[in-house]
Automatic annotation (TrEMBL):
<comment type="similarity">
    <text>Belongs to the RecA family. RadA subfamily.</text>
</comment>
<keyword id="KW-0863">Zinc-finger</keyword>
<dbReference type="InterPro" id="IPR020588">
    <property type="entry name" value="RecA_ATP-bd"/>
</dbReference>
<dbReference type="InterPro" id="IPR003593">
    <property type="entry name" value="AAA+_ATPase"/>
</dbReference>
<dbReference type="Pfam" id="PF13481">
    <property type="entry name" value="AAA_25"/>
</dbReference>
<dbReference type="GO" id="GO:0005829">
    <property type="term" value="C:cytosol"/>
</dbReference>
<keyword id="KW-0547">Nucleotide-binding</keyword>
<dbReference type="InterPro" id="IPR027417">
    <property type="entry name" value="P-loop_NTPase"/>
</dbReference>
<dbReference type="GO" id="GO:0003684">
    <property type="term" value="F:damaged DNA binding"/>
</dbReference>
<dbReference type="GO" id="GO:0008270">
    <property type="term" value="F:zinc ion binding"/>
</dbReference>
<feature type="short sequence motif" description="RadA KNRFG motif">
    <location>
        <begin position="255"/>
        <end position="259"/>
    </location>
</feature>
<keyword id="KW-0378">Hydrolase</keyword>
<keyword id="KW-0234">DNA repair</keyword>
<dbReference type="GO" id="GO:0016787">
    <property type="term" value="F:hydrolase activity"/>
</dbReference>
<keyword id="KW-0346">Stress response</keyword>
<dbReference type="GO" id="GO:0000725">
    <property type="term" value="P:recombinational repair"/>
</dbReference>
<keyword id="KW-0479">Metal-binding</keyword>
């Protein structure tokens, strides 16, 4: 006999417990614990004959798992070359970040490729918008294609019926939290429904080798909404990030069973749609004159991808009792630490001035390698001395003022040389193992004073 037990689930994160509690022990939410469906625990599992016999690994056909291009190079980069047949990809992001726009562009390009290769159509199912609303967006971004089929549906069994009738080559579902199943209790988006819908949908598409891209909502903390088991069920989890007031969008792979998780895709979201950016340097570098004080360029690493980032600083005298320290795109605590180091080691006094530090183009960086460029920008603004023309700097600053070694220096130098920079300040530690890069002069610096002496132009007379 199977024993019946009662389980309780957190509606915020999916945490399970055998008894009711007032606060979730995982995410800390109050009043989110509710009783779930009874689960049967079998005490004597029975053996079942397998449908297919096990075979030697050398004889397994690996061609069915080869990635196929989605038509969007930046998405292919993040996925590891393309989407694998039968793969289930979860794309999560904040409302308005551009998830639906990106996937509609992917659907249109995939439909054109499918028609040219004789494959089935692309099926785009929306549980949030009508087909007319989706068409209006497709007209705006130029994503109309006769091999792209639209359906507004939130009933899982009907969606599976669409799959059986159309036999698509790609399924896009926007979003998984809006779909419900008649066989499962609870409202759409709840823990029980999301778990059941995802499991049934994965079973249906895996048997057909049908790749699926699911759109997922996020919570106010930026995590994927629904139970944590949702991330374990799918094959790939991608996070779509970006400031809604800026054009730049970044796509990161948080989990990827078929490729790396350290690749980043860059997109430009504008009025006419979304465009991949193989070279996003134009968004991060300003065309300001090289003689303008308070600006310095660094090269950060987003995964394995070098990204040029321009740091700007403004130091202004204030009469207020408490000077301002305002940052945008840079970690506030690291800027406060650098101000303390510059005052203690170099005598750069900012106790009576407001300090504003920002990146260009909405770029965000928390990497310690940006410390040196940030410090040079602040010192340049404070002394009214521009940095030398064509200079790029990267390195972590310690509390004693030393420049610590950082990772990926060779890749940063190669990217800086490609963008036309002529001078690079790098940490002295490990500089002897660097390979010379054509067109750029490398100057190792051991501390902040040496960096200021080599990086800033002479004072005006």
């Amino acid at each position: 006999m199977a024993k019946i037990k009662t389980e309780y689930f957190c509606s915020e994160c999916g945490w399970q417990t055998l008894k009711w509690v007032g606060q979730c022990r995982d995410c800390g939410a109050w009043g989110s614990i509710s009783e779930g469906a009874a689960a049967a625990v079998s005490t004597a599992p029975q053996a079942i004959a397998p449908r297919t016999a096990a075979e030697p690994i050398s004889q397994v056909n690996a061609e069915v798992a080869r990635a196929r291009s989605t038509g969007v190079s930046e998405l292919d980069r993040v996925l590891g070359g393309g989407i694998v047949p039968g793969a289930v990809v979860l794309l999560a992001g904040e409302p308005g970040v551009g998830k639906s726009t990106l996937l509609l562009d992917v659907a249109s390009r995939a439909a054109a490729d499918a028609l040219a290769s004789g494959a089935g159509p692309v099926l785009y199912i929306s549980g949030e918008e009508s087909a007319s609303q989706i068409k209006l967006r497709a007209e705006r971004i130029g994503a109309l294609h006769n091999h792209l089929l639209l359906a507004a549906e939130a009933h899982l069994e009907t969606i599976i019926g669409h799959i059986e009738h159309q036999n698509p080559s790609l399924l896009i579902l926007d979003s998984i939290q809006t779909v419900f199943s008649s066989d499962t209790e609870g409202a759409a988006g709840g823990v029980t429904q999301v778990r059941a819908v995802t499991s049934k949908l994965i079973a249906a598409v895996k048997s057909r080798n049908l790749p699926v891209i699911l759109v997922g909502h996020v919570t106010k903390d930026g995590g994927i909404a629904g139970p944590r088991v949702l991330e374990h069920l799918v094959d790939v989890v991608c996070q779509f990030e970006g400031d809604r007031h800026a054009r730049l969008r970044l796509l990161r792979a948080v989990k990827n069973r078929y490729g790396p998780t350290d690749e980043v895709g860059c997109f430009d979201l504008n009025d006419t749609g979304i465009v991949g950016l193989p070279d996003p340097s134009g968004l991060f570098l300003s065309p300001a004159s090289a003689d303008t004080p308070g600006t310095c360029v660094t090269v950060t690493l987003e995964g394995r991808r070098p990204m040029p980032t321009e740091v700007q600083a403004l130091v202004a005298v204030t009469n207020a009792g408490s000077p301002r320290r305002t940052t945008s795109g840079i970690d506030h605590s690291r800027v406060a630490m650098m101000l303390a180091v510059m005052q203690a080691r170099l005598g750069v006094d900012t106790s009576s001035t407001d300090v504003y530090v920002s990146t260009v183009g909405g770029a965000k960086t928390s990497e310690p390698a940006a410390d040196l460029a940030t410090a040079l920008a602040i010192m340049s603004a404070a002394a009214d001395r521009p940095v030398k023309p064509g200079l790029v700097a990267f390195g972590e600053i310690g509390l004693t003022g030393e420049i610590r070694a950082t990772v990926g220096v060779q890749r940063r130098l190669a990217e800086a040389a490609r963008l036309g920079f002529k001078v690079a300040l790098v940490p002295d530690a490990g500089a002897d193992s660097l390979t010379p890069v054509k067109g750029i002069h490398i100057y190792p610096v051991a501390d902040l004073s040496a960096a200021a002496r080599l990086g800033l132009q002479p004072a005006k007379k």
